[in-house]
Each structure stands twice: as structure tokens, then as C-alpha cells.
Amino acid sequence: MRLFLKRDDLIHPELPGNKWRKLKYNLDVARGHDTLLTFGGAYSNHLRAVAAAGRIFGLATVGVVRGEPVSNPVLDFAVSRGMRLSFVDRAAYRNKDALLPGLRAEFGDFYLLPEGGSNEHAVRGCAELVPEIEVPFDLICVPCGTGGTLAGVASGLHAGHALGFAVLKGGGFLREVVAGLTSSQRWSLDTDFHHGGYARRTPELDAFIADFQARHGLLLDWVYVAKMLHGIYRRAGEWQGRTVIAVVTG
Q1: Which of the residues 5, 125, 159, 195 has the least number of beta carbons within 10 Å of its own beta carbon?
Q2: pLDDT tens-place string over residues 156-180
Q3: Is the same domain home to 240 and 204?
Q4: Spatial separation of the C-alpha atoms in residues 86 and 92, rounded to whole Å
Q5: pLDDT tier at 103 (50, 70, 90 boundaries)?
């Protein structure tokens, strides 16, 4: 197996990789609105990216965060870029549509970005990743949290196959989500490498991250990218003779 890294994390220091690709066309559609509102977990890189985009493009931003109020580097960054946070208990968070009237009453009119930014506009942006790859490949892998990146990459393929590695426990539901975002059949989902669930880690994952950094000088994001690459390394024996692209989404 030959493995290449697609370093989408280097696109922009505050809007890396798939986050910018997902936002690109959504920001076009959002013209005429002063505020972006979106949803995410406490370690959501999507929340971080939306906050950065708001600062760059002069838009107010609101992040609705799943769970009890916490402080961490991701949310602290979002706040530093002007994002207002609203914490919602996990039960209420499951029914986001029911939250919208109250959010509009509190924050006024806004352009609604879905959790993870995954919608048809995000798929269009992520599809543009594929033609940038100059190496012929058999398989392209992405970490999968909400399905938009996998759907977009699959939509951009004319050959080869896209494989998403679910980063959350019980991620099988993402198959239905991805199928609803793309008509492409060139994709599949691996749910075996979530390491305990979203924003959770195991000693095995930590050891892999440390070894990868020692060997290659690259510190992997443990919420998304490390889980994908660990899965690739574990599956490598099944992919002899193949050329694999791993998208470092940032």
C-alpha cells in the first residue's frame, strides 16, 4: 500500500480543510444576513471555523453547544473570535428544530448552518477537493462526523472509492445521512475506529499519535484525523498494492 496525505489543514490557519470547503458556498447563500448560527459539540472544529469565518467576513456568529457549559481551547478560540455560545442539554439538543423559535427570539434573524455545516452547499465545496489530487489513487479516506465531507468527496469522484471513518460511537446512522446528500455510490463507511465515541480517546489512540509524530513530525488531531489514520494503518494489510489518499481535514 502507498499512502499519501492530502494536507487540507494547510489551506488557511483559521479556516482549514473541509471546514472552509463546507462554508465556502454557504457563505455565498448567507449574503443578506448579519448573523450565522450553527450547532456543535464542545470540541467541534466546525464551531471554531464558523467563528473564524464570522470574524474574517464581518458576520456575527452564534454557536449552540451540546451539553453543560464548559471551557476548552476550541470554545475559547470561538469566543475570542466573537462567537456567542448557548449551551443546551443533550435531550433538548436532539430536537434542534424545536429550539429555533427560542433562538430567533434571543438572537434575532440568522442564517442557519446545520451541525457540522453538512448540507448541499457543503457537498459542492467538498467535491472540489478531488480534482486537486494529482496522484492516481484507488481509495480516498476522510474522517466522518456529520457526513458532509464524505458525501462531497464521493460526489467528486469519477473513479476510485471514498471511505469515511466515523469518529463517533454508533455512527452507522451516517450511512443514511450521506446517502441523502449524494447520489454517488462510490463510498462506504467504517465504524470500527471511534475509540469510545466523539471527542473520546483511548491509550491505543494516544500511542498511535505519539508514534506517528515521532516518525513523521506531524501531530495529529485526536478528535478526527488520528482516528482515520489509525483505521488506515489497521486496514493496510487488506489494501496491498493500492494507492490510498488520507485527507488531513484540520
Answers
A1: 159
A2: 999 999 999 999 999 999 999 999 9
A3: yes
A4: 12
A5: very high
In Å, the largest CA–CA distance within the chain is: 57
88 and 202 both lie in a single domain: no
Q: Are strands 243-247 and 111-112 parallel, antiparallel or unpaired?
A: unpaired
In angstroms, rounded to a whole number, what is the distance separating the alpha carbons of residues 19 and 4? 21
Q: Do 124 and 232 reside in the same domain of the chain?
A: yes
We report the CATH number of the domain holding residue 45 as 3.40.50.1100
pLDDT of amino acid 104? 97
Residues 6+ apart with CB under 8 A from 24: 121, 125
- The parent domain of residue 218 ranges over 2-12+120-247
Q: Is the pLDDT of residue 112 over 90?
A: yes
pLDDT for 18:
86
3-state secondary structure of 41: coil
Q: Is 114 part of any domain?
A: no
- Checking if the pLDDT of 17 tops 80, the result is no
Q: pLDDT tens digits, residue range 47-89? A: 999 999 999 999 999 999 999 999 999 999 999 999 999 999 9
Alpha carbon distance 39, 172 (integer Å): 21
* 114 residue type, one letter: P
Domain match, 185 and 103 both: no
Residue 215 shares a structural domain with residue 142: yes
Q: What are phi and psi of 114, to 5 degrees?
A: -70, 165
Which among 55, 83, 109 is the end of a domain? 109
